[in-house]
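Example with several molecule types.
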Amino acid sequence: MDAGLFSQAGGTGVSTGRVMAEDAFEAVVGAHHAEIRRYLLRVTARASDADDLSQETFLRAFRAYRTLPAGANVRAWLFTIATNLGRNHFRAQSRRRRAYAAVALEAPAGAPDRADGRLIADEARARVEQVIGGLPEKQRLAFVMRKMHELGYAEIGTSLRCSEESARAHVFQALRKIRKGLDGHLPVGTERRS
Amino acid sequence: MSKMPASCREIEPHLLAAAMGEAAPPAAERVRAHVAECGECREELGRYRAVDGLVHAARRGPLPGDDATLARAQLTARLADLRSRMVSFGIFPSPLGPLLIGRSEVGVALVQYLPASGSLGGHVRRLLGEEAIEDPAATEALRAELIEYLEGRRARLDWTLDLRRTRSDFQRRVLEATAALPYGAVTSYAGIAVRIGAPSAVRPVAQALRWNPLPIVIPCHRVIGGTGDLTGYAGKRVELKQRLLAVEGVKAQPAGHHDFRVHREAMYTLMNGEVEYCLPTCGSLSSHPLSDLTLFGTRERAEAAGFAPCTSCRPDLHPLPA
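Resulting structure tokens for the full complex:
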């Protein structure tokens, strides 16, 4: 910008607090972006959605960062933002699907296309991801947060706007469905121990 | 499932918790005791343990599409863009009524007089757009300096300004010329037009100052009509202009309805381009239009701005009546 009259140096030092907040946010991005994107990749199953939603998560976080109380759990807070964005995304997606179905009678198949179509070597592990991908939304989100990212039930409850107990119930329900979905894939012999 | 004994149904959630390794010790003990007796549940526990193991393996294994590099680079660029558009603002009381100061990453972007009452939310949105964040701490140092200024305890606001809200290059030139007017001095709209090399653009100059995004800081209150009338300020609040000038030692007397006038015969006078200031009666000064002149309310202000008393009319020996 224009130097001279409008950029008298010396200044007042007023920017210090702001600059520190920004540096701190750089650190937040560095510490959490990859994990938040991985979370979103697991729950949306599309790399492009994970790209968009992870960016949006941090743009929102940046706007609100200075109002976050000191000592807040930044990681859990980011998961809450990502979860909200993910759920909005699912809603928009299902609206689009319904619109498609109405117009073209050509609703896409139920299972979302898995990321990049690359094959995972271990069949059972692939089956786990597949079953997780087919879970109802809240169970899927709760399960991924708990088992893939080790968040506490209270934090998961905050993200899903439900109680800690409901969060636990979602995870357990997910586990029951995964267990059913894996019937026949479970390693033989692990079941019996005397 | 429906035939499951009550004791098995009751233990089932604890069994899941135990399989995931998160059962509290008493519950874990109950599960241990139960599966020691119940073969079905023992097998079920084994299956859940196997599921938990597979989930762990899935977590540790590669995840197709798990490369955040591109998203991270795009995020960095979008954050930089967002930062440059963001304005932090504070609203606070002042001797001139409620004021808003907004600052961006670049500098101070906005100073606004706010209505004394009513909701400010919509007003602030209109002024600042969507990327505005109320953050009094970010503007606290600015607030303190501005109050000092309004109370006459400070003559300069050495702020870095963000002029991206200016509407045109023309307006920018007008604002720069206005910012160069010394503390305690006034000239006319035509005087600013002359200074920016567009002497016929008097009305456009007045329009440009009407949309000054940084009143007080860019002192449009020091620009008055050619007759000495203050003419207008902040909508219909010309009394604010009179008060700002009074703080700087420039007296404006009530004139007509709702206006004030600076009387040239009561002001020390500088011919533009000269280095000495004069009494208003010196030489042919009184026949010049105000656009050729800069007027000072006090000798101290003229001298603080770097001008010496004229050696022929000697304002230092014959000061104007206070």
